[in-house]
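#lab-general

N.A. 3:47 PM
ok so I finally got the sequence cleaned up, no stray characters, all 355 residues accounted for. can someone with queue access submit it? mine expired

B.Y. 3:52 PM
send it over

N.A. 3:53 PM
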Amino acid sequence: MAEISAKLVKELRESTGAGMMDCKNALVETAGDMAKATDVLREKGLGKAAKKADRLASEGLINVVVSDDFKTATVSEINAETDFVAKNEGFITLTKDTTAHIQATGVSEVSELMSTTINGTTFEEYFGSKIGTIGENLVVRRFVTLKTGEDGVVNGYLHSNGRVGVIISASCSSADVAKKSEEFIRQICMHAAAMKPTFLSYTQLDAEFIEKETVGMRAEIEKENEELKRLGKHEKKIPTYVSKTQLSDEVMAKAKADIEADLKAQGKPEKIWDKIIPGQIDRFIADNTQLDQQMTLLSQFYVMDDKKTVSQVIEDKSKEFGGKIELVDYVRFELGEGLEKRGCDFAAEVAEQLA
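B.Y. 4:20 PM
back already:
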């Protein structure tokens, strides 16, 4: 049997929120495999899914640049060793200039960026001189640029602390609708910055992932209900499904039939059913798409109108602007996501990237 260290148990506990002994037992069961142990805890309703962003240690800044015509937007992340550098005017200027240069040159990889020319020298030399001036190791970690045509629009949002940036592109039915949508797309970016969706649409969720999350989410709610029952409080409804992907035509037909049977049992006149059923169907979908609401932008309830999903708000705006708006691409950067602290300081992680 693999030796389970206290450090490994502590790491699993911090990432899942499960109890110490539950974590140890899960690690023993999976021979020390962190990913499998996390799944075991999820299936038993003993811990949340591991959230890497909660375990990260990194510094630096996210930056967003949107072109004046709202046809191109770039988001970048530049890392540094300490949080002090994020307040350094020289570093702040460097992040802005670098992001603008990325957009102007149209590069898509860090290696391409380093060979471009800026101020009469290679970007690699330029960036190296800034490292010498600022006095810390710096890394252009990643960047993405979104572009659109005449009938499209892009916009972005950078949170005031410089740790979260979002860019979104949309395809519109006309240049006029695209022009009218500029500020609206920025508002959607603000929503995404706050609500942290991972994907644009539920259609991007993998079937195996959905199946695993269905088990995990149901187990979590069952566990919560045990405590709610003990406290004499109203228990939460356990969903049959968690994603719209699972709501087939057969599932929706049965849901409608069940609603009609319930209305009949209540003695509701059939002539008013058509006024009641749509709302009940919407509630059924909301109750059975909790994974989509957590992870996909279009399925989340909009922060500026929490009675409607982002998708529904886009439909309303499309009608208001006299055309159609369709979100095409979505990118959200949070400072340090994916850079895990593995028992070493961030300076060592930056050095690894520079090597």
